[in-house]
Structure formats: structure tokens, C-alpha cells
Amino acid sequence: MKLQYEDSGGSGLPVLALHGTFGRGKTFAAIAERLAPEYRVIAPDLRGHGLTGAAEDSSGFGREAFVADVAELAEDLNLAPALVIGHSLGGVTAFQLAARRPDLVAGVVVEDVGAVTEELPQPVLDVTGWPTRFPDRPAAEAFFAATPEPSYFLESVVQRDGGWELLFDLDDMMAAQHGNTGVWWDDWTAVRQPMLLLRATDSFLLSEELAAEMVRRRPATTRVEFDGTGHWIHRKDPDRYSSTVRAFGQSLTTWRPPGG
Q: What are the beta bridge partners of residue 108?
């Protein structure tokens, strides 16, 4: 599947930035701005999200499909090897891409998601009853005010045909969540590139115990805690997030600039 994407441009180290469920590539806009010009941030709308088309059926939202899409984009844009950063669902995709297509990846940043995603109190958010269209923007804002990060969800609400509607299909989001539920230790431990694990201290997805186990099973992993932030670290603390990613990128030695 061909992914639509945001591209900050430039000739710096390519960064593939992968959003979580319900998101869009533009969620990384503030990060791309802060990382420029040393880093070129390419942030796709993953399948079923944003401006990218949906899969033909729910079976198209498994892990293999997400990884294959991102691999195809990296090849099409000649990004390899890229620094791959991923939030939540995008974080699982990031380390699975590194494990399964190591030729495409220089390093991995995993934001607030674990190698095990099926043992959470609520691993899947039931959105089957959500409205998909709103009479105006304030109505959408009022609905998403109850979510942990309203602005994140509102990026996928656009004006269309006299109203405001979601860019994603609710059944697709359920399928994407279920497809991301599992035990991924084999992929996690198979990654040979440098890896950075970012955890929010107020996370509802990545416990301190699971983060510690991830480092124990893969000792080469660098773990960084973000105090006072929730699951969306890149939105809650973009300055520290960007500086942490920048420092990690500078530690990579496998990438060379064009002509370098």
C-alpha cells in the first residue's frame, strides 16, 4: 500500500516517524521542526489513517501489513538506513521493521509501548459507538475533550461536505488495535541496531516492570524516563523528546550524508 506522508525535506539523516492508532503523520510536526535541519523527518499516515487508504478488509491490519508498508516507503524514498521512531502502534512497527528488515534501519526509538501488548487492563479501546461526523468543529472538540489527548484525535477531524468528519473508519481502528495485540519478544530481542526506549512515568500502556524486563532481555537498550508526561510524550514534552532523539541520532555511525 502506498502511504501518504509528511516530509520536512532537506538532506539530513532520514527519520521515519510512525504514529500510533488514531493518529496521523502530522502528529510529529513539532518534532520535525525542532530536529531540522540536521534531520529530515518523513512521517507517513499509516494504513487506514489520515490520507492513506484503508485495507480491503480487517485482515489487512495485521503486523505484517504495517511493517511491509513502511519498508516499501523507505525503499521508494531511498531512505535506508534511516532512524526509525515510533509511538505506540508505530513503536511496535518500528522495532519489528528493524528486526525483519535490518538493512533499512540505522537505529530505533520506541515511544511508550511494550514488547507485550496483550496483558494490559484495556489493550483495545472500544470505539464502535463513536460518532464519525460532527455538525461543527466545537462539537468535535466537545466529544474528544474526554480523551487523554484531545488534540491528537482532532488532527483526524477534517471539514468536508458541510460538516466535520473523521478521516479513519471505526472498524479499521478496531482491527488495527487487535492486530497490534500480542507478544513480540522474538522481534524485540532480534533487533541488532542501537535502540532507545522512551517511557512516560504516567503511562497507561508501558509499565515500569515491563520496561525493565525489555531492557533485561535486550541489555543494549537505552531507557529514558519522562517524568510527569503521559502516553503521548512527543506532544507533552517535545523539547526534551527532540533533544533526546537528536542525541541518539548523533550516536549512530552507520549513516552518511549524500556524497559523504
A: 84, 195
The pLDDT value recorded for residue 254 is: 61
Structural domain contains residue 158? no
Query: Hey, what amino acid is at 79?
Result: L
Q: Which residues are registered as beta bridge partners of 163? A: 160
Whose grid coordinates read 502506498?
Answer: 2
Checking DSSP bridges between strand 163-166 and strand 195-200, what pairing results, if any? unpaired
Backbone angles phi, psi at 165, to 5 degrees: -140, 160
Q: Are β-strands 163-166 and 13-18 bridged in parallel, bridged antiparallel, or unpaired?
A: unpaired
Tens-digit pLDDT profile for residues 133-166: 999 999 999 999 999 999 999 999 999 988 999 9
- Residues of the chain scoring pLDDT < 70: 57-58, 121-122, 253-260
Residues 6 or more apart in contact with residue 256 via CB below 8 angstroms: none
Q: Taking the chain, what is the end-to-end CA distance rounded to the nearest angstrom?
A: 32
Run of H or E residues at 2: none
The answer to whether position 49 is within a domain reads: yes
CA-based nearest residue to 192, from 76, 65, 113, 101: 101
Domain that holds residue 244: 5-125+180-251
CATH number at residue 111: 3.40.50.1820
